[in-house]
Amino acid sequence: MSFEPSDRIASLPTGIFAELAAKKRAVAERGLSLIDLSVGSPDLPPAPFIRQVLAEAVLDGAKYEYTLSAIPGFAEAVASFYQRRYDVSIDPSREVVQLMGSQDGLAHLALALINPGDIVLVPDPGYPIYAASVQIAGGQLVPMPLRSEHGFLPQFDAIPVDVARRAKFMVLNFPGNPIATIAPPSFFEQAIAFAKRHNILIVHDFAYSELVFDGLRATSILAYPGAADVAIEFNSLSKTFNMAGCRIGYAVGNRQALSLLQQLKSHIDYGVFRPIQEAAIAALTADPVHLDEQVRIYERRRDTLVTGLRNADWQQVPNVHATMFIWAPIPSGFESSRAFSLDLLESSGVVVTPGDAFGREGEGYVRIALVQSEGLLAEAGQRIAAYLQRH
Ligand SMILES: Cc1ncc(COP(=O)(O)O)c(C=O)c1O
Predict the structure, then answer these.
(1) How many angstroms separate the CA atoms of 361 and 15, rounded?
(2) Domains and CATH numbers, the chain
(3) What is the pTM for the complete model shown?
(4) Whose Cα sits closest to atom 6 in ligand 1?
(5) pLDDT tens digits, 54-105
(6) Distance from the alpha carbon of residue 357 to the mean position of ligand 1, in angstroms
(7) Which of 130, 205, 265 to mutate to test the pocket of ligand 1 (most atoms within 8 A of CB)?
(8) Angle formed by the axes of helices 102-113 and 129-136, nearest 10°
(9) CA-to-CA distance for 23 and 354, rounded, in angstroms?
(10) According to the model, what pLDDT value does residue 11 have?
């Protein structure tokens, strides 16, 4: 028997990540140890108090029923976190939707909002689910290029008016993956004005809201006047609290968009495991001092890797002030992002992600994730230096 994939599945790209995974296996089988800087999954554990709450709840046999939606206290915990961290007031009864990770919301939002053929504006390069979710829902993608000459910010005046008029929503992601830009206030104000003018929902992915270094802070889009009229924001416990495997996140902001997402989800899932929700409440309501320690860890990792790569004569490597990613132009003399990444992996065992995995505009770049210890990042720098010298 053979089963044909749906057109929907067939339209989704698999190429680069599958190629990278196969190459990783082949290199490891050859006996070369890998230093994997290609994944965006935190290697650090959640703080001990979070694991303690989770462990105790898991042992309670009464906590295994379907939760269906957020348990009492979760939405209030999100509202209190937003008030304390971003100075944003949220009505917990109507302005919070719990998610199985922000991916759940980002993946399903298009199905709740668009009809086949509707236009959605997505950043290019961008985190892959933005484009995939629109393709799954049968929408029409219009990329917003993020280029260095514009500080990696989308240019709204480059979007033709007839496209803007037909666009249902627009995805923004600051600080972003794969590009760690922190957008200035003027950008958010411009985005809100543009969205109001053309009746477009802004979908702001704020997954890296707390991984911001050097004394800087990221702002929630909801901190800007009028944002709740046009914006929904996705956030997550995955990176802030190292709870990526727990699968818990949330969306806040525009009530109508949230209610449509909630309505769709009520047909799809039965809620997050109660012990995980309890651990999330503990995380969101705790004194955020442990977040500062985490920021320091990422700062040191960033310093180690950026210094190591620049010493390797890879001068174009930028300093980054947020997220767990460095978005670096490939060294000169290589024909493409993919050729460089695959050859680097083959020769040195260091795994980075070719930029075109995130869209056409990513060609010429690689994404390097700070998801290993300082020691391994230093070794990665040395291996890359040796590789570039040989090349
Ligand atoms: C930019 C961005 N958004 C969303 C997610 C999804 O995170 P989660 O579903 O774990 O909340 C990720 C994960 O890597 C990400 O990098």
Answers:
(1) 16
(2) 7-45+290-390 (3.90.1150.10), 48-285 (3.40.640.10)
(3) 0.97
(4) 103
(5) 999 999 999 999 999 999 999 999 999 999 999 999 999 999 999 999 999 9
(6) 15
(7) 205
(8) 40
(9) 13
(10) 84
- The predicted-structure confidence for 285-311, as pLDDT tens digits, reads as follows 999 888 999 999 999 999 999 999 999
pLDDT per residue as tens digits for the range 141-190: 999 999 999 999 999 999 999 999 999 999 999 999 999 999 999 999 99
Edge-to-edge strands, sheet with 353-354: 325-329, 365-369, 353-354
CA–CA dist 227, 202 (Å, integer): 9
Q: Using most ligand atoms within 8 A of CB, pick from 38, 103, 171 the residue to mutate for ligand 1.
A: 103
| Ligand 1 atom at minimal distance to the Cα of residue 102 | 11
Rounded Cα distance, 272 and 293, in Å: 28
* Distance in angstroms (rounded) separating the CA atoms of residues 53 and 60: 11
Q: What single letter denotes the amino acid at residue 322?
A: A
Read off the tokens for 233. 């924001």
